[in-house]
Each structure stands twice: as structure tokens, then as C-alpha cells.
Please model this.
Amino acid sequence: MKLSRIRIQNFKSIVDSGNLDINSLQILVGENNAGKSNILKAVKLFLTAGKNGIDEKSFFDKSQPIVITAEFCELGGPERKNIRKYLRGDLLSLEKHLICSVDDSGKYDIDVKYHGYIANPCDWWLSTDGVNETKGSRPRWAEIAEEYGLSDYVTTESGDVNKTSYEKGLKKYLLDHDDILYDEPALGDTQALGISTYLVDQLPEFYLLPAITDYSNEIDRRSSKTVFRKLMGELSERIISSDPRYNEVESTIQKLVCLLNPDDNHDLEPERDERLETLGIIESALHERISRLMPSVISIRLEVLIDEVKDFFSRGVAIRIDDGVMTDVLDKGHGLQRCVVFGLLQTLIANVRGELIPIAQEVSQDQNKIILAIEEPELYIHPQMQRPVYGVLKEFAQTDQVIYSTHSPAFIDVWKYHQIGVVRKDTIELGTKVHQCEEGILGTPEERRGFQFLNSFGLEQNSLFFAKHSILVEGEQDVIALIATGRKLGLFEEFPEEIGYSIIVTGSKGELPKFEILLNAFGLPFTVLLELDGNDENEETNKKVLDLLNGRKCVKILRTLEDLLGRTGHFGRTFTAKKFFENPDNINPDLESLARDVFSS
Model:
């Protein structure tokens, strides 16, 4: 089961996100304080039973409920069978409502309710409500069961059939029969159906790695409630239990319990008590002294709490790393600490999928999918290691899901634009919005493959998703000309990002339209620098570029950049262009005027 869509209303900075499609790898980009982290927290809130620490400050408007609507797809056979009555076709659609109210003492109280679609079987005798509607308030349950072959499911040990046994037996009958037809599901309050305890358990597991300043907190063995520690506790039990010598661990722990704690049958069989005698002496001494102060005290009993194996791993594992010097991971740098978290998460999750220690196929299929959410995975990671970390996340997303926010071009691919959500908060009243587009907007599969190949040799084109305003140009020579001229004019000191512009090289005039389509789809501002090459504006390529402006600005050069500068021929190599613009005197008034126009959008 995978999360395929979510809508968030009235949560923190989000008034109404609209429908946000969630891919196996979903990337959120946007400026600081746009609401990216709030989206991740909303997903966590939905997938966690209860209010999960939500208070009145989490409501954009306390007079309205927080409503999170989620859809899930790719349900496996066992999943479909267990929750079939909640499905709308192949989708599971649920809503979680959180309502803020004030009690008599003036304190805020948060009430949580789930709403979902539920369908009843078409045949009246397959639901107790249907039986009551058809046969009245006092139906003959045994006769109905006998008539429709349900007796083996609904008869009690005493041989009776009543409403309770009928309802209980129907649940098993419906699970055992895959050919049952259901009515069209209807939306309703399903809290009474146990949705918060049963159905939520069927949903994907959610783990959030926040953008904390000191990642050692995730690894520190003194911290038992971090995502990393919870993963260690949840997954280590099965790792260890699969070892042939696991029984030695259990017997050793049991021996420790016997040595430190009294046997429950001590009074009946004192000779079997293996407890250390000194502990009994301490109890007697304590009782003697306490009973003098409080005569009603009859006895004192000391019990030593022994952790389960799972707790040993969640609280008692230290990590030491030899990177030339063997020291605790807490003594290493933040970058290594975060790499350890990524590495251990990958290893532990691989074990869940049976990739480390073989597990039975049916066990693997029954395991819930995992949604791994990360705030800014690039934090503390060396620039040259960011793409390998991105590769780790892509690999994990092949079987589960990853949702993360990022400010780094190394963690996106421009040709995988359908995996990207641009998060903006234009005004407080509108709140956080997410802009996405579908995969097929760039034409035929062959055209999309070409776009992917041409933009797979660097990260520069990825920057358009982080730019405040993109300037689309054909080649590197255009970039050099605009930057050199901008510096000469004092528009910026070094680079146009200082004044909110990013120059994006498309590679050729023929590729300009594809970038325009992308930017239009995401609602991102841009300007096009277009060389008409001496042709009319109605020439095929020129017209295509101009038609896709969608109200955006286009600065035109009648022929070519070189012609504008009074040069004959093309610059050819990038180095030649750099040497030419090295001398500011080579920049003529025509290019200065053009640069002012480009940077005034």
C-alpha cells in the first residue's frame, strides 16, 4: 500500500493545499518558511493514531477543524482482503478531522475523528443492518444462518445464534470469500468501526528525520524516542530472533531475571528460588526499619526491571567508528553522523524487506510499506557526496516511498519534474500551496528521452526549480555575455542571483520551448533571451518559443549575439567568449541595453 494523494486543510501555514499527488519519490522545493516541513508533519499526523502532540497553535483557524484527506493505492492481496469494505475501487480514501474546543476550565481540547468510505455487501443477509431492515428488529438469526449456509461461522459453542455471534461470524465469512459483491461505498464517520486502531495499523509506517542542528541526538543511546532509536527497537527484535543462537539470549535474560527477582511460587516451593540471597537480606533490613516508622507495612519486595531484547537495542547500543581513530560516533563530525543515520536506516529497512536475512515470502508481503520523510537530506553532506545520497533515496523508493524537502539541485532531476512539488506561500491568507505537473507534458516518449539525455550531464538545469526568476538562454556564451555586462553596469557584483535572477542554459533554441512548458506548468516566472537568427518571428521555432511565453517577457536579438557585438562568425568555444568579455571595452551599448532589459523583468 502506498500513499498516492493527500489534501491538507487548516493545518499551521496551510489553509488548503489542494490535492497533492505523492509519487514513490516525492520532492518538495521552495523558499524558507513556505511550508514544506508542515506538509511532512501533516503526513505524519495522518498516519499516526490520535492527535500526536497537536495543540491549538497547530490550527490556522481554531474555529475550523484540521482536515487531512489521503488516498492509498497499490494494495496487495492480503491488504485488499482485510480492508475491502473501505475501498473505492482500487483506492482507500480516508479523512482525519481534528477539532479544537475550549472546556469549562478554559483549556483547549483536541478531538480526533476519522471519516472514511465504507461499503456494505449487496446481499442483505451479509450485514446485521441488512438483516434488521429486511426481517425487522427481532429476526430469527439461526434460521437465516441455516438458509444461507452461515451456521458454521455464526453458531456459538453452546449452539446458539444471536446478533453478536452473527456479526462476529460474518467478519470471518467475508474474509474467507473473495467473490462477495459490495454496494457503492459512502462517506461517513467510521470512528465506531475501530478505524483509529485497526485500519491505521494497515497503513504505511512513517519515519521523519527532521532538519535538526545536531544530528548526534538521533544516534545518542541516551535518547530513546528518536526516529532512529525507534527503528532500532522495532527492527532489531526480528534481526536477532532469526539467529540460530537466539535461544541463548532469551535463556540468559531469563537467568538474570531469576537471579535478581523472587519467584512467584517462592512461598510454595522455596527450594526452587534462584534469587541472590543478598537481595533477600536487603529486603528484610528495609522492612525492619520501615515498619518501625509505619507499623502497617507487612513486607518489602525489591524487583529489578530487566529490559526486553527490543529495549536493549533502542537504549543500549553504542556505535563506534574507525576512520583512522576508533571513537564513539558522537565524537565525529555532523556529516559522518548523518551518513551513519542514512546508512543504518538503509540497512535496517533492507532487513524489513528480507534483503539481509531471508524471510518467508508471505511474511515479506504482509509487512507494511515504509514512508521515509526527510527534511533537507543535504545538511552536513559534502557536495560531492550529495548525488550518491540521492541515489540511496531513489533506490529505497523503488519498493517503498520517500518524501523530502530540499534546497539542493543535487537532489532533483529536471527531467523527473513529475516527482517535484514547488511549495509557495504568496500570502498568509492563501497559505501554503503546492504546484505540480503531470509526466507527459513534454511530448512523445522519444522527445522526453532526448530531454533527459541532454540535461543529464550536470546540475545547472535543476536550478530552475530554486530560482526566483529564470532567464532562459541557448548556450554558455549567452551566460558569459549577460554576467559580464551585468558586472560592468553594476547591476550585481558577481552573479545575477544577487538580484533574484538565475540564468538557465537550455542547450539550443529547439530546447527553449520544453523549458517554457515546464516553467509555465509550475507557474514559475521566467524571461527568454531569443536570437531570431535573421528570421521572421513566424518562423517555426521562433513562433513556438513566442507562443509559449504565456505573458512572460521575451528579449529578442534580431540575428545573433555576435552580430549584436559587431563580430563576424560565432564564438565557438566557451573559452573564446570568456577571453572576449574579459575586456569590458568589448561590451557595446547595444549589449548593455539588452542586459538592462533582461534584468528588469
Q: What stands out?
A: The radius of gyration is 33 Å. Residues 467-598 form a domain with the Rossmann fold fold (CATH 3.40.50). The first helix runs from residue 36 to 46.
